Amino acid sequence: MSWSHRPGLSRRTVLAGLSALPLVAVHTRRASAAEFSFKLATGQSLTQPINARLEQACKRIEAASGGRIEMKFFPASQLGSDTDLLTQVRTGGIDFLNLAGSVISTVAAPVGITNVGFAFKDYAQVWPAIDGALGKVVRGAVEKAGMMVVARAGDNSFRQITSSSKPILSPADLSGYHIRVPVSPIFTSVFRSLGAMPTSINFNELYSALQTRLVDGQENGLVAIDSGKLYEVQKYVSETNHIWDPFWLLGNRRSFASLPDDLKEIVTREFDRANLEQRGDVAELEKTLKAKLTAAGLAFHAVDRAPFKAALAKSGYYKEWREKFGEENWKILADAAGGLE
Q: What is the predicted pLDDT for the residue at 29?
């Protein structure tokens, strides 16, 4: 018996019921049109250049794959905090994740070697190291933690210390100072070794922590300070350049392995391009952000890095992390940074 002849079902009822079906069918066809449907997440504020570049990469990947790959983009902690996202990419809840190396080091300790305090002085040291031997150390550590790095590193900027109460001009100014740091052992270690009282807080909770004076200050690159509107709750910027922290684009190994070689090449190529373009974006922004943030009310102070580095050496900080990272890895870092200790 057809639906149209079943007792109690009018033609109007049948048509009303069927009219809803195309919506479901269309959604199903769209979802299944691509052979591979992936999620890419970031924890960075919407205005950070990395989000624009990765969104462009997603569109290029979809186009270059002829629609075989669907790349859903979830920026700015839409799917959770940094630590939540890290768990998700490891378990397959998401397929790709842009995250700072400092946070990745909580599950892959050797990744933190790029965060050694006052190691790099400029980008002339950074990029050859991170695109070369030091980058290989990081990639190996990520793989041992069950993930993979799918592209070149992005630039999370050299980090500066900001404060609402006083400029930080010497190690003595950090004595007993309450400062926010990322959820990362090496960040906690560097500031504790300098006499401060560091507190680990995810970036998406940072503004509130500063506003409520849970912490007095924080440390980040100028791009993050601007995009997070931290100038609204801070007064001083101390130009310490104390740590350089890269962005790494992580991949779930099962997700990436599911792709045939030609699609793997497309994904890697376009994500590489995105991060190389993001490096240029950050370099351009750094030229103008100091003036912009000054106009927004922040007072900048130049800092002599030498006393901070000496204080770290005296505290045993470098000795401790040399032992943790191992002689071979430490030598790679020291050679790239022009010496340590």
A: 33
